[in-house]
Design brief:
Distance between the termini: 84 Å
Radius of gyration: 28 Å
CATH architecture of the largest domain: 3-Layer(aba) Sandwich
CATH topology of the largest domain: Rossmann fold
Strand content: 5-15%
Number of domains: 3
CATH class of the largest domain: Alpha Beta
Shape: elongated
Structural class: alpha/beta
Number of helices: 26
Length: 663
């Protein structure tokens, strides 16, 4: 199977255009990675010019193919393809590659550049995002496709390099993709035998083909600079693909550069003025900077008309489908909008959750309730659903060939799970929640960071949230994790005190246009009358009074999660001593920091007296609220293996110990 000569000729010209634009942009910026874009130029030409189904005039068309550049350092490859194919990325942006406020940052950012599906750079994570997108597409097809109405039949492509395959996260998601048989996923491995530091032979000698076949993938090995070989493998996959596919595309890094091609010198540094000039001469390319042959623009202009017709045909199909399945159309619209019912808060307050109850169990009750009328909620756990209580028991498990369920068993793959959740959110249809123990958020941290950078809507349910998980000991007891999560910009971290706050925490997570970490107790906690307040007066403010005496106070106690009821007990003892005391529940620092200064002063201003924070984690950050001379009842070392009541005595989280500290 070969391409028509005329198509092959124009694709070859597009490849050289990508090659030259990429090296020139990197040279002008005096920064960047020209090797991958030059080496993968034929792959880019074939995908953008022939294989991909997309519409540059509507980058968010629901049934478009997705193209993820997991090897994000090769960003100029993607920017060149987006520019040529007609996305809103003018030549001026390519000429300002890696410059302040340009749409062409050093690594692709989905919030900055039209056509960029996900933010990539930390290697392997784009791979995980792509697997999540593929799973989401299969779930969408299972829900909405009907006979004669294949609404969702798109493909997910990702371009990955050696580093992506070395990073362990790609192994996690590849294993699960094979298990679920995601036969809409196509991964192209830019196998150029070169790493940043030198030849790949110095650090890797595995048989990647055999590894992926063991995962359950179909694997092809081709010359990645040969358009006919690309076509022979990729073209048939549009109509028949039985498994996830890995295409090991052997390429020449920096292809076209006469003196640096095939070496690590071209990986992460500009070619140099003389090598750029020599490359143009070798390619027979004009000396004009950032030159694009008019025939290339003309080709993509014609292609753009065809792309629009393709989407128009799909919209026509959608219209007919909507007439036949009006209820499904309502569901689709609800999923696209992620709409939250107006009456939800009132219904949540009415939801009976008897205490004492662990935060994880209260959250499961809320989740079970919400999932009945929020069809976009899907989720799962890293082999802990029976413990972190993320299972929606009224819905089936997702499995190979059966994607109509809403529960995903990710296995013990925390990092992979987090990258996939971001990809699922990027599908536009689903709001994923994922669960594990709080201490294992360390495995996920970089994925959470990228999700926060993208402001993607993902909910993390972290349970076993303190030393009070007990006997599993310090390996499982989080200490520094509250602080590390709070440090991530745009991540909404909430540690609720009881079932009342758990309900409102879920409301906060649903309404926030970004990621939320729900941090929940294993042990049972009493339901507090003081927390039974409206969202506006409680959780929505991030911190609020549970106990408050007007005027100058002697003490202001502030706590989160399982330590809130302890703070109330301490306050009552102080009141018996004639002290004026306030107690503040502070489930979410981020929400509190958004409040007006007048409200913040009301809680922590000049009348607060001695500030005291009570939280079973490190003290880092608390002095911002309780003052430089404030007292922090905290953990500054690891915990121990023992029943939780013994741990409370050992580490000073009792009424008696706290009174001794503060009096």
């Amino acid at each position: 199977m070969s391409l028509e000569p005329s198509i092959k000729q124009i694709l070859s010209k597009i490849a050289n255009t990508i090659r030259v634009l990429s090296m020139e942009a990197v040279q002008k910026a005096d920064s960047g990675h020209p090797g991958m874009p030059m080496g993968c130029a034929e792959i880019g030409a074939y995908l953008f010019g022939y294989a991909l189904r997309y519409n540059p005039k509507n980058p968010h068309w629901l049934n478009r193919d997705r193209l993820v550049l997991s090897a994000g350092h090769g960003s100029m490859w993607l920017y060149s393809g987006l520019h040529l194919s007609g996305y809103d990325l003018p030549m001026s942006e390519l000429q300002h590659f890696r410059q302040l406020h340009s749409k062409t940052p050093g690594h692709p950012e989905s919030r900055e550049t039209p056509g960029v599906e996900t933010t990539t750079g930390p290697l392997g994570q784009g791979f995980g995002n792509a697997v999540g997108m593929a799973l989401a597409a299969k779930m969408a097809a299972a829900r909405f496709n009907k006979e004669n109405f294949p609404l969702f039949d798109n493909k997910i492509f990702t371009i990955a390099g050696d580093g992506c395959f070395m990073e362990g996260v790609s192994s996690e998601v590849s294993s699960l993709a094979g298990h679920l048989n995601l036969n809409n996923l196509i991964v192209i491995y830019d196998f150029n035998h070169v790493c940043l530091d030198g030849p790949i032979s110095e650090c890797q000698s595995e048989n990647t083909k055999m590894r992926y076949e063991a995962y359950g993938w179909e694997v092809f090995t081709i010359d990645g600079n040969n358009l006919d070989e690309l076509h022979k493998v990729i073209e048939p996959l549009r109509t028949k693909q039985d498994k996830p596919v890995l295409i090991i595309a052997q390429t020449i890094i920096g292809k076209g550069a006469p003196h640096k091609a095939g070496t690590s010198k071209v990986h992460g540094s500009p070619l140099g003025v003389e090598e750029v000039k020599a490359t143009k001469e070798a390619l027979g390319w004009p000396e004009e900077p950032f030159y694009v042959p008019q025939v290339v623009y003309d080709f993509f202009k014609e292609r753009g008309i065809a792309d629009q017709h393709q989407e128009d045909a799909w919209n026509h199909k959608l219209s007919h489908w909507s007439e036949h399945y009006p209820e499904l159309r309502k569901t689709l619209d609800q999923m696209l909008k992620k709409s939250v019912p107006d009456h939800l808060e009132a219904k949540m307050h009415e939801l009976p959750i008897a205490g004492p109850v662990g935060g994880r169990k209260a959250s499961q009750d809320v989740l079970t309730y919400l999932s009945n009328f929020l069809p976009y909620l899907v989720g799962g756990s890293a082999d802990l659903s029976c413990s972190d209580l993320t299972m929606m028991k009224q819905f089936p498990l997702i499995s190979a060939g059966h994607f109509e369920g809403r529960n995903i068993k990710f296995g013990v793959r925390e990092f992979g799970m987090a990258t996939m959740a971001t990809g699922i959110a990027e599908s536009q249809l689903f709001l994923p929640f994922i669960g594990t123990f709080l201490t294992f958020s360390d495995y996920m941290r970089n994925a959470i960071r990228l999700c926060s950078l993208m402001r993607q809507h993902v909910i993390y349910q972290f349970t076993h949230d303190s030393i009070f998980l007990g006997e599993d000991g310090p390996t499982h007891q989080p200490i520094e994790h509250y602080a590390t999560l709070r440090a991530i910009p745009h991540l909404q971290m909430i540690r609720p005190a009881d079932a009342n706050e758990v309900k409102m925490a879920w409301l906060a997570a649903l309404c926030y246009q970004g990621p939320t970490a729900l941090v929940l107790s294993r042990q049972n906690l009493p339901n507090l009358a003081e927390t039974s307040v409206s969202y506006k007066e409680g959780m929505g403010k991030g911190a609020y009074f549970l106990l408050h005496e007007e005027g100058q106070r002697d003490y202001t106690l502030v706590a989160t999660g399982s330590e809130v009821h302890l703070a109330l007990e301490v306050a009552r003892e102080l009141q018996k001593m004639g002290k004026k005391v306030a107690v503040i529940s502070m489930p979410c620092w981020k929400l509190f920091d958004l409040q007006p200064k007048t409200y913040q002063e009301k809680l922590f201003g000049s009348q607060m007296g001695q500030g005291v924070s009570i939280e079973a984690g490190v003290a880092q950050g608390w002095h911002k609220y309780v003052g430089k001379e404030g007292i922090t009842i905290s953990m500054e070392d690891f915990g121990a293996s023992a029943p939780y009541r013994a741990l409370a005595q050992e580490f000073g989280f009792t009424v008696e110990s706290i009174l001794e500290r503060i009096l």
